Each structure stands twice: as structure tokens, then as C-alpha cells.
Amino acid sequence: MREQLREDLLASLRQKRRGFTKGWYKFSRNPLSVIGLVVLVSIVLAAILAPYITPYPEHAKPYTNFQDSGKPPSLTHFFGTDRVGRDIFSRVIFGYRFSLTIGIVVLSLGVAPGVILGLIAGYHQGTWIDTVIMRITDIFLAVPPLVLALAITAMLTPNLMNQMMAIALVWWPWYSRLVFALASSLRSEYFVREAELTGASKLHIMFREILPNCLAPVMTKMTLDMGIVILLGATLSFIGLGVQPPKPGLGTMVAEGAKRLPGEWWGTIFPALAIVVVILAFNLVGDGLRDVFAVEEV
Amino acid sequence: MTAKQILMIENLVKHFPTKRGVVRAVDDISLHVSSGDTVGLVGESGSGKTTTAQCVVGIYPPTSGQISFDGSPIDVAFSRRSKELKGKIRIVFQDPGSSLNPKRTIKQILSVPLKVHGIGTPKERLSLMSHLLETVELPPGEYLYKHPQSIGGGEKQMVAIARALATNPRFVVLDEPTSALDVSVQGKIINLLMRLGDELDLTYLFITHDLSLMRNVATRVAIMYLGKLCEVARTEEFFRSPKHPYTRMLLSSIPVVTRQEESLKPEKIVSKGEIPSPVDVPPGCSFHLRCPERKGICSEADPETRAMDDGRLVRCHLYEHGAAKAGG
Amino acid sequence: MSEPLLDVVDLHVGFRIFEGYLSVLNGVQLSVGVGERVGLVGETGCGKTTTVKSILRVLPMPPAKVTDGQILYRGQDVLRMRRRRVQALRRHELSAIFQDPLQSLNPVFTIGTQLRDIVKDSAIGQGRRLPRRVIEARCIEALRETGMPDPERIMTNYPIQLSGGMRQRVCIAQALSTHAKLLLADEPTTNLDVTIQDQILRKLDELVDEHGSSVVMITHSMGVVRDLTQRANTMYAGSIVETGETKQLLEGPKHPYTQGLMASVPKLTGEGISEGIPGRIPNYLDPPPGCRFHPRCVHRMEACSAELPSLFEIGGGHRAACYLYGGEA
User: Fold this and answer.
1) In this structure, is residue C126 part of a structural domain?
2) Domain membership flag for residue C138
3) A199·B163 Cβ contact <8 A
4) pLDDT of C13-40, one tens digit each?
5) Does the ipTM surpass 0.90?
6) Structural domain contains residue C48
7) Which listed site, A240, B88, B99, B240, has its alpha carbon 20 to 30 Å from A211?
8) pTM of this prediction?
9) Considering only CB atoms, which chain B residues are within 8 Å of C197?
10) Contact between chains at B95 and A1 (C-beta distance less than 8 A)
């Protein structure tokens, strides 16, 4: 029995490894996706190691040095300095910490409930369960996410935690929509029919038969969404409803810099570019993932 | 008909209301299946053969009519059937690509019916599964841990058969089990099914569009057209002298491969017309628009099913009066 | 045999994928005379469709790659033609009908729009501009020829409004509306019911006769080949294993694969079902050396795994790629 279990595990590991190498092959067919992945990995590593690799880590904290105020980009300050003399490059790297945290926390809060609700509604398509879940979803979807997030954040104290909660609250319905569509079409596949006719429980059918077949699109969407969530976070920070100064949120920095345009352009442009780069990277990686999960034709 | 009747379908009707009108998928059919038989239910698309099978296994409850299995009524959907009944009546679907979950290993797939029906202790199940794979002539060591997409179509269908047999069924509905497979693979699956049928004393309801296949497999053949049965007969008699004009058209349309076969086909009946939609069934006999022997009455009255001398059932105005009249 | 219209010579085509190199076509030999109807029979994955796509030059390259061989159309190699020349060829000389008409018809345009475009573009390609009235008349004529009832109404319909048989008739009308010289029919009736298949094949037969086109009929059904073609080819794992007059080939199959295939077809004589052919089609990543059928063959000899047999003459144009009928000496 134990031997059998071992073999079981080994076989599944072998399968996984094969799947992984094959996935990487397909991913690497698109050079843009690879570039996206390299950029993304660098950003993540930089954000994690920010205190050790940035030239002026103390500039991320409350810090002033008016002597260096408003310096243009140079070799000592790659992205220049802001009005109180902080190194913008260091602050951008620290800013990624906030952005990535927002992305990860929002998606981990929002995706699971969205997926589960969509799964339940999709499997019960056409019944009252479907109606209740999907109408609620639709109500959330009907309000533009930025407006809803704005409203929620405005009611609460503006800080990072509340901002993430607000975005998560507007994010789950997209996942229930996606999984609902997938589940309701998978429901009529013969393997689901067969499980029903065998007498398998609903839980088994939903979580063991249908859910595994929904994961690939969900993962692709999560990657693509990371970029959008980061953008939404930055937007909220920009209007003062997110990361509070002097903490270096990317959106906050854009807002601060914008006051001194066009003279000290670097204060706005570099944080803004940083946002663009991370969103682009997530999108390229998402496209690559889509290729990985695409059904083979040949 | 000395053998026990295991499945009785009486006046089965299954209608699907849609926006475009009511789809009369199955419209009043009666069919009895004796224990140990292989009944071939043959028809073209839209004939209702698959819907009939789906009512038998309980995917849909019938609109009206009775289905009984072993003497007890089973005309409800699967959710209201007992576990025991679900184990006794099993189905093998047409497309093995879609009937096996691509994300699960064959071991996981085979374990579901065993777990659900509480067959064997968790420890015994592995050997039970190996045994099931051996029954369908697949070496267990090689297949247990594979995913369906890494094996061939024929092998997938064998796994599906193994899964159907896991609960020791008595009655198996075969819904076009080989139509997605190549002929060189079909032979193996069919012979496997026939051998298992004998060894395990199974009764089959074989849904197909392939009459040539039924000639070699079925003990009785039933022809369906637009939700109704046209003709039911024992296989030899059926092919020796097909009676219903639709049956003859069907038989004469089959492309055959040898001269000997050609001689067995009824005289060429040129097939014409489209199969009408089951939403809009022609009045009278549903076949009359395409029938080469159409009479006045055909467009007015639906013919009754008649039993002929040899036990054959035919539903056609040509045979309304008395059993034997020239045909074929 | 008269000068061939199409001559596929020793065609090798492969695909590069993650797992390695799929060597699919392994020296396909196929010739079609003017006005001749040729059947190409084989099972799933034997390379039938890859052959058709190579002839039409619509294989996606990469991943596909032609490593060797020629496809001569009237003596000119399609594989080495300029793109414009191939387009002209597809416009006027070649036509194709595929298995799934729903995929070859555009769902968002009416049948009329799609047919008119084909007739118009084909004429423009020949340097003529047809008046609308003529185009309309030709379309309706083409539909009527296929036995379609009420072609005027069909012209205003969308593909999904038609039944499978009707759609396939539209595809046949499209294929024949340009008076193509060579028609490639890839499993045109596989998805249809037998009574409808019968009608479509009969109509196709008549029309091809009228137009004098040559036909390559690709199918997995021996019966269809028997009804419709003069010469038949059996294909296995990327090469033609047997070729000959259809009658000869079906009545006295020589290659063990053709024999196995014939035995596997369920027959109306009710003699039971043969066990089929043991094993399965080889993995193209690592196909067996020599004759690719040898691992499944009951007559296997030593020579079989050494070298691919060429098509040996048996008599009367009947040839089989098998060492039972020649080689060695």
C-alpha cells in the first residue's frame, strides 16, 4: 500500500514536471512574454530586496534634505529628486512594494469567493441559485469599479488596508462571471453527466470534476488583472485615497510630482513610467500564459 | 419471447419546449428489451434515439409514458433514482474525449463509481481498479496513472467501458460507442463489448446510425425516424426483408464495400428530401414527404403500429390491412 | 495513363513541436489524371488532411515544414510557386470541400454574399468584371445545380439557418461555381446522415461529370470510395501503401493494411466483426524504421524494418508498397 502511494506520488510528479517543461516551451515561443517575465521577476526581486539594493533606502521614510531638492536625473540620482530632496529612484522601487502588495492581497481576497460563487451558479444554471448569485454579481458589475471603490474608500479612513478591501470588493464579480460561463458549459460535458448518473455528490462534481477545468483561464485572468488592480490602486492613491504620504506609493508620487509640472517633469514621469512598465509586464506574461493553456491544434 | 423482459418502454414521450416551438424528440414509442439481448436502436440525426437512451438512464424524466426496469417503474430523472438503480443501469457515451475528465488520471476516474457505490474498502479498490482495466484488456500498470489525453481514442473508450462496469451493472446503454473511432479500432471495442456481454450477462441498448454494424451485433433492430419507431424486428428477418419504406431507403443508401453486400441491399431507392426538423413534424406519417410509396392517406393519418406474423412490428399504411403484403 | 493533372512526388512534410519533430508525410506519391476521380482512404491521423493542405499550400509554416518532394500541377511545382501564382491557382484551378461546412462558411454573412464574392473575385482574377445581374444568375444556377430547393431564398439565409446537408451543398456550389479543374474533397460527407450522404454524393458525382473536373476524394470510408472513384489509394502513417483501380483494390486488397481495413468494415453479410488491426498508428515523433506498418503486420519480415518498400507493381496498375510483392531480388 505504501509503495503504491509512493508510486502514485512519483507518477503525478513526473506528469507535473513534463507539463511544466512543455508549458515553458510554449511560453517561450513568444519573445515578448519572455521579456515580460524577465521584467516582472526583476521588479518583484527589486521590491523584495529594496532596502539592500536601493541607493538611498532611508528616503522611503520621512526624510528631508532641502539641499538636494528638485535635482534633475543624474548618476547620483537616476530619476532625480523630489521637492524635499528624496531620491525618486529609491522611492519608486519601494513604491513597487505597495503596488505588488495591493495586487496580491486584492486578488487573494477577491478570487476565491468569486470562483466559488461562479462555480455554484454555473453548475446550477437555470435554477433560482443561479439567479440569486448572478443577479447580485450583475449589480456589482453594473457600477464602474473605480466609482464603487471610490465610494467605499471615501467612507472609510484612507489607508492601504481599506483601499485593498475596497478594490477586492469590486473585483470578485469578474471571477464569478468568468467561472460561471466556464462551469455552465462544462456542465453539459459527458464526464459531468457520467458523474451525475453514477450518483456522485454535487460537491464532488463541482470541485473535483468542473473546477480543475476552470483553473487555467482563471490563472490567466489573474495575471492580466494584476496590472489593472495595480493601476486602480495607483489611481486611488493619486486622488489621495490610498497610500498616504510620505509613504512612497506610486500613485501618490505621481500626484505629488504633478504639482511641479512641467518644470520638474521627472517627479511625475518616472513613477508613471514605473506603473506602465509593471502593468505591461503583467499583460505580456498573461498573454504568454494564454498560449500555454491554449488547446493544441496540431 | 421466452426470455425475461428486463426493460419495458411504454408510450414514451419526451418533448422539449423551446422558443421556436415544442421539439418532439420522442413521440410515443414502445420498446421491450429481453434480458441478454442486444437491441440496436438505429436512426439518423433528429430521430430521437439518443433522447430515448437518455430517458432510460435518467438524464431527463419522460414527458409521459412509462419506463420500467425489472418490473419496477424508473420513469424519473437520475436525481430521484436510488443508488442501487444507478449502479444497475450504466451508459457509455459516444465521445470518449469528452466522457473522461481531461484533468484526472485514469485511476481517479475509475475510483469514482467504486467510492460512490461503496464497493470495496479503500485498500481493496486499487486491485479492483487493476482488475477492471484487465477486464477491458488494458495493462493496469501502464494505464492507471495516465491522463486521458495521453492515450488513444480506442483506449479511452475501453476506460469508459471499464468505468461503466465498475458497479456490476445489468443493463448498459451504448450511445454510439464507436462512431468517433476508426474502423480498425472499432472491431476491437465491439468484440470486447460482445465478449463482456456474454461473460457478465449484460443486456445492451445499442444506439447507433450504423446499420451494417447492427447486422453483426444486434439480436433485434429498431429503426427510429423523427421520434417514432418505424420498424422493429429480429436482426436476420429485418435484413432479409425490410418492410418500411424508410428502412429500405436507409439500407439502400449505405455505401458498401463488396459485391456480395451489394446483392443484399434492397433495390435502389433514391433518397430524397431533407430530414424535417423535430419542431415541425409533418402531419400524418412523418415520413410521407420523402416516401417513394406515398398514398393519399399518408398525409392525413399517422399509421398504427402493426405486428406481422413473424413478430415484426411495422408502422406504415402499406401494411395496415392484414399482415403479409408484398414489400421489399 | 494520360498526362497527370496533379502529381505529388515523394512528399515529406513534418511539424516541429515541443516534443520534437513529427515526421508526418513520409514520401507521398499520388497522381491524378485529367478528369480522373481518385480516392484517398486512410484512418484518423494518417496524413490525409496534411496532404490536402500541402497541395493547397495552406499549411501553417512553421510549425510545418516540407523537407522533400514536389507537388506538380500541370508540371509546375506548387511548392516553389510565387504567392501570387498560388493564389491564382486557388482561384481558378483548385477547389476544396471540407468536412465541416460550418467552419468553411462565414457565420456572419449570408450565403448569397459569400457566393457572390467567390464568383466576382474569380472573374476579376481572370481580368473580367461581371455585371451584378450575371453574378446573381450564376450563384443561383450553382445552387440549383446542387439540387438545392428554392435557391433564391437560400441566398438570403445565414449558414446556421441551414441543415448540415444544405450547408454542404452550399460548399459544393462554392467549389464548383468557379469551374475548378481539380476538386479536393476532404471527408465531405462524414458528418452527414446516410440518406443525406447518398444524395450529396450522387449530386457531386453528376456535377463532376458535367464539369469534367478531376476529383481527389479523401475519406475514411471504403464504401464512399467504391461508389465514387475510379482509382483508389490507401494511406497509412504518411505514405501511400497501395494504389490501383478501385475495383481491383477493394476486391483483391494486397497490402496487409488494406486487407486489415477491409476486414474491419462491418458488412451487411453479417459474418461478425473482425478484431481489427492490432496496435495503433505510430507516434510520428519516433516512427518505426522501414515500413511504418511493420509493427502491426502479420506478414512482417526482416526487410520490413530495414527500408521503406517502394510501390511494387502487381499488375494492371495495381501497386502495393510491401515486400510480399517484390523488392530484394
Assistant:
1) no
2) no
3) no
4) 988 887 788 888 888 888 888 888 999 9
5) no
6) yes
7) B88
8) 0.85
9) 253, 255
10) no
